Structures are given as structure tokens and as C-alpha cells.
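re the bet — no i am not wrong, look at it urself. input seq straight from the record:
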Amino acid sequence: MPTDASDSIVLMQAEEGIATITLNRPDTLNALDAATIDRMQRLLDRIEADDASRAVILTGAGRAFSAGADIREMHGRLAGGADRVMREVVRRGQELTRRIEAFPKPIIAAVNGLAFGGGCEIVEACPLAIAVEGAQFAKPEIRLGFPPPFGGSQRLPRLVGRKRALKLILTGDAIDAAEAQRIGLINDVVPAAGLLDAARGLAERIIVHAPRSVSACLASVTRGLNLTIDEGLAVEAGHFERLLATGEIAAGTRAFLARPRTLAPRGKTATE
């Protein structure tokens, strides 16, 4: 049961190793006001500290994943001056997307409808994303007179390429789920009725693996993506070395060698 008013604007349910976070402001298309962002951060704190929660699904209530920053709230803060807007809007939003991107457990965006502005930036920050067939993605900030402020001007080009990203950022045009999948913004497109089942299925295929190995994979890719290849290789090697100290690699290879070996079907590699 909610313990204060902010609890109801973002809901969380944990079951069988998977925590589901639901943005729950459907009357505003799940716009990201300060209270919503702060509540999401508190829930991520709780999930990170909970060893039983191995993966996260992030979705929205109603017909939107998120329409982005709460423009009404942002406009009200403009009267407080530039410092206030930067502190209470831009930095708050960037801290959320940075946290999502660097989170040590996999976060899967389950995009149930439109993901515009900051909502799209959350999708960009999530390491994995699945969307319903009717989902739409857009970067409409330019129509309001500013560039994407929650990390979208940096992450989107890294995900889909500079020219594709700039076309979206400079026009504000929306794309559908099929196009978002084609350019690499999301992984899969599914029927609306199967969205959460698909997200849970993906999460279940991940959480069968050792938690520290999953975290090392996430950190290696996220940290290394924006480095030179040599720097990235050093990051990769560092995570491998840290896992050596835990004994997980020895346990994994020992279990592999103990499995009965069978002939692989033609065209596949024998791994057992």
C-alpha cells in the first residue's frame, strides 16, 4: 500500500527475481515531473540493494510509456532562473538516465505506447527495449526551442548513427516501432497483449546466469562503448579479472566440463 502521495505515481512489483516499475500518471501520458523522477530513483536504490531482484522491467500505465519531461512544471520553474531549471530539470533528468544506463542489473524498457522526449531518452538509456506494434518514438524538443536535455543528443547518435539521430532531433518527426527496431533503438516488436510476457521472458533468459557475470557484461559494454578499442579492452579485461577473484569463472567452467557431451545437430556447435 502507498505510504505517501508520491508512491502512487510510480508503482513497483517484485516477483520471481524480476522487479516491474510502472510509470503511473496516465492522465499526463506519464510525463516526467520531479516527483516521478525522484520516486524512480528511490525504487532503483531499493532494487539495487535487493539481491532477490535480478532484473528490472520498466513500463507505463495507459496509452503511453512516457511523453517526456513535464512541460507545465518546466515552464513554471523558468521564473526561478536558469540555475533553478538546470538543477531541478536538466540535471535531475540526466542523473536518471545516467543511473539507468549504468545500473548493475539489466533494465528492459517495455514500451507500451508513445515514448517522446524524455520517455525516448529513457528507452535510449535502457540496455534492452521491447515495444508494442503501435508504439511511437520521437524527439520533439526542437519544437519547444531546445535540444534533448536528458542525454538524448548524446545517446541516440551512439545507438543509431549520427545522421539518423540528427534527422529525428532536427525534425521532431515520430517513427513507429518497426522503424525503431530497424535502426537499433529497440530490440523487438510484439503485439500489445504480449508485451509484459515478452519482457519477462527476456529477463528470465538473463537471470539464469550468475549475477556478477551479468553485471560485468553490462558494465563492460556500457563503459567501453565510448572509449577507444584499447581502452575498452582494458575495461573488459578488468571485469574478467575481478570475476576470477570471486571464483565464478572456475565454477562456470567446472560445471560446463561436467555436463554430458552430445553431438550437435548439423550446422551447430557442440557445447554439451
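see?? The longest strand covers residues 10-15. told u. also The beta strands are 10-15, 18-23, 55-60, 64-66, 107-111, 114-116, 128-132, 136-138, 174-176, 188-190. so pay up
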